[in-house]
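All the exercises in this workshop are built on plain-text protein records. There is nothing in a record beyond a sequence line and a structure line. A learned vocabulary of local backbone shapes supplies the integers on the structure line. The question running through the whole workshop is how a given chain folds. Here is such a record, shown just as it appears in the course material:

***
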Amino acid sequence: MVIVSVAIQGLGTIAGKASRLVSMRLKWPVVFAIASVLSGCDSFDNQVHKLSGAAQGTTWHVSVWQSEGVDVNALQQRIDAEFNRLDRSLSNYKPDSDIERFNATETTAPIDDGSEIVELVEAEKQVSQASQGCYDLTIKPLFDLWGFSGQTLTPPDPATLMQQLQHVGFSKLETPTPTQLRKTDPQIHVDISSIAQGYSVGRVATVVEAAGIQNYLVEIGGELQTRGHKPDSSSWRIGVKRPLPGGLAQLSAQGVELLRRHLVVGTHHLAEQSRRGKLEARRLETGTTLPLGEHLLKESLDIG
């Protein structure tokens, strides 16, 4: 580099004027140190680093970059640790999680589940009230009856549905203290997956920002949050998928450019199932206990 050569010549001149007793052996380490610093000034990491894994019954992906570089291994460990913590508390896929242990208890006594779960339940209660009960986190038993927890649709008979419906209702769940949940019906089960993934996206984004990274895209099971931009100053982009009738086939659609610096997007579950040639969304209407029809699914995807 030209600038390094000039620096070396200047160093020799200054050293000669200062003292003839300085040996050449002592000059070279100083020269190399200056060269290293100068070359470091020109370094710029424009690589997007991609991390991924499995959690909460789905997959997650994180894309990050910053001009100073990213310690990918350390960031991966911090993200994995946060997912492990969240899974131990919120996962409806792990029988030993805090929320599943609560579901397994058949008592009306208050259960200490921690402030994090209670805060999420309180947030879901507001959504339930705003939707006049259409949103209900106690609908999980009906969800399981229809086979939506697996890959095979198993329509239950009306009598079984009506019997199970007796143990569904947000009013059967209370939060007596900021850290406790209580069932008024010991047979209800709570599924907080609909809010847990979006919440987890925010938690992982906090971990990324704590590492000093201001440009990222965090995605968990189709829910995402972005900040900043890509190295070429363009916006982050995502792909959108459209479900197809007749099974689990999906079709990639045109990518969507994310123009806002902070964005959280919740998506419908795209693994739809077919019953007698009719597309069924993995959403249940709480009043009829029946899946949402194809027309409503299409409308929601067009809006999204």
User: Anything to note?
Assistant: Residues 72-90 form the longest helix (19 residues). Residues 1-42, 260-282, 292-304 have pLDDT under 50 and may be disordered. Residues 155 and 268 are 21 Å apart (CA to CA). The chain has nine helices and 16 strands.
